[in-house]
């Protein structure tokens, strides 16, 4: 019986990986979204590990993230997955999707173990992994996606109590969460609660020495990961401030020039949950649903602070934290918050006074989440796609094979404003020579023609 149970568990975990991975990479070689950020970041990781920057990606609000963790992960994907796909950008997307699905399996196992039921675990993972927004970006090289998957991984490790066994495991859990902040600053709310989770158990036992020791381990992991950033600042004499827009907003509030925008933050949180989880029909009820869910979970798990720190606490911190940011709040800022928010709602829905009713509610939530998958997937394949990618790759591959120096590569079809028709060609080994006499043109079928510069 035990062997059969283990086999069934392994089969479910394997199926979860394969199913979510297949959904994420569907059409990746044909429709990959490769724009300015993707060109920039994939080109950066083409060199050696030592050539990687000491900072994270530049942000659209000014500055950059506070560490190079995103580039470390993307470089590793390029080394492991890249050779199988000619080092083209979709190799990065496939590797990123594989990491996402592996973390989904870990989260499924964590919630299953924590609740003692597979149904809320499967419902949570299905809702988080198969939202059309998430699927549409899952195989796109993009640092908010990596920040989200690292935050999700840290939550799973904490729910498994993995951090409690040996000191080095606490350091790893904190390190994973902080690498999420390296990738995307919005993961800070999960990282903060992971740090609290590391010390909460000895703190509640009033084991002060152990609390200090675990806190030092967590802070030590953060300090170690900040060495590259510190080295960069020292080498540039601290002339470059990271996240200037964020620190500028906080500075205005501290100076009394502006007030925290809690209402805007609450509106942004609800809107992001509605947009990413695709809940327009119940949009008017979402604020009440989120508040009631938080209250139910806070009461139901009042004796399990670890669950509270991985569900209600990150959302509360995000509500406060984003109120200190005076700029506009885009929905993708909250990607890292989807796991704790969805988990909060699912745990609230499946909480009941009796085990039998909880199980029935869990089954219902699981079935409902699975029934949403086909429609969500169908929407995802129409979002954030670049159909020009396939002919661009085909034509660039042909041009690179011919090894003819070209002054430029152009296309007969339009590319998005930040598209680069020459990037794939260069990546495949093609040479751009601005003094060459010929340029190439790729058409919508991926066929190529040559034009003499200044002539027919």
Task: Tell me, rounded to a whole number, the average pLDDT.
Answer: 92
Assign a percent range to the helix content. Answer: 55-70%
* Shape assignment: globular
In whole angstroms, the N-to-C terminal distance is 76 Å
Low-confidence spans:
none
Strand order of the largest sheet: 1-2-3
Radius of gyration: 24 Å
Query: What proportion strand?
Result: under 5%
- Based on secondary structure, the structural category is mainly alpha
What letter string, H or E per element, gives the SSE order?
HHHHHHHHHHHHHHHHHHHHEHEE
Care to count the β-strands? 3
Total domain modules: 2
User: How many DSSP H or I helices?
Assistant: 21
Q: Biggest β-sheet: count, sense, barrel?
A: 3 strands, mixed
In short:
This protein is mainly α. The chain is 63% helix and 3% strand.
């Amino acid at each position: 019986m035990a062997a059969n149970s283990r086999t069934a568990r392994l089969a479910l975990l394997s199926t979860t990986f394969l199913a979510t991975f297949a959904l994420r990479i569907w059409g990746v070689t044909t429709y990959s979204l490769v724009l300015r950020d993707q060109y920039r970041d994939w080109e950066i990781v083409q060199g050696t590990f030592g050539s990687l920057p000491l900072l994270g990606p530049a942000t659209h609000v000014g500055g950059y993230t506070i560490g190079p963790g995103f580039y470390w992960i993307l470089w590793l994907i390029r080394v492991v997955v890249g050779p199988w796909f000619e080092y083209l950008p979709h190799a990065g997307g496939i590797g990123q999707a594989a990491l996402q699905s592996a973390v989904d399996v870990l989260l499924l196992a964590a919630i299953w173990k924590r609740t003692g039921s597979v149904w809320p675990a499967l419902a949570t993972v299905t809702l988080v992994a198969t939202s059309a927004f998430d699927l549409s970006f899952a195989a796109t090289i993009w640092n908010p996606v990596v920040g989200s998957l690292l935050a999700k991984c840290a939550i799973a490790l904490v729910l498994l109590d993995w951090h409690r066994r040996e000191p080095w495991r606490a350091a790893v859990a904190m390190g994973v969460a902080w690498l999420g902040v390296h990738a995307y600053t919005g993961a800070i709310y999960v990282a903060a609660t992971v740090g609290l989770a590391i010390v909460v158990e000895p703190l509640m036992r009033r084991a002060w020495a152990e609390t200090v020791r675990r806190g030092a381990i967590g802070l030590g992991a953060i300090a170690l990961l900040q060495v590259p950033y510190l080295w960069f600042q020292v080498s540039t004499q601290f002339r470059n401030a990271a996240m200037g827009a964020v620190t500028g907003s906080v500075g205005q509030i501290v100076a009394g020039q502006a007030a925290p925008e809690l209402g805007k933050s609450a509106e942004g949180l609800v809107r992001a949950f509605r947009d990413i989880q695709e809940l327009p029909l119940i949009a008017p009820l979402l604020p009440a649903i989120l508040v009631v869910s938080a209250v139910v979970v806070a009461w139901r798990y009042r004796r399990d602070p670890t669950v509270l720190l991985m569900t209600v606490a990150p959302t509360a911190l995000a509500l406060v934290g984003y109120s200190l940011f005076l700029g506009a709040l885009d929905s993708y800022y909250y990607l890292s918050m989807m796991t704790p928010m969805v988990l909060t709602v699912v745990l609230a829905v499946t909480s009941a006074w009796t085990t039998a009713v909880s199980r029935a509610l869990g089954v219902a939530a699981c079935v409902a989440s699975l029934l949403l998958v086909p429609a969500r997937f169908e929407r995802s394949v129409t979002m954030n796609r670049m159909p020009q990618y396939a002919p661009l790759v085909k034509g660039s591959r042909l041009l690179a094979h011919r090894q003819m120096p070209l002054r430029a590569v152009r296309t007969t079809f339009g590319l998005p404003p930040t598209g680069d028709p020459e990037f794939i060609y260069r990546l495949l080994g093609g040479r751009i020579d601005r003094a060459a006499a010929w340029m190439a043109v790729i058409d919508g079928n991926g066929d190529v023609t040559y034009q003499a510069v200044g002539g027919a």
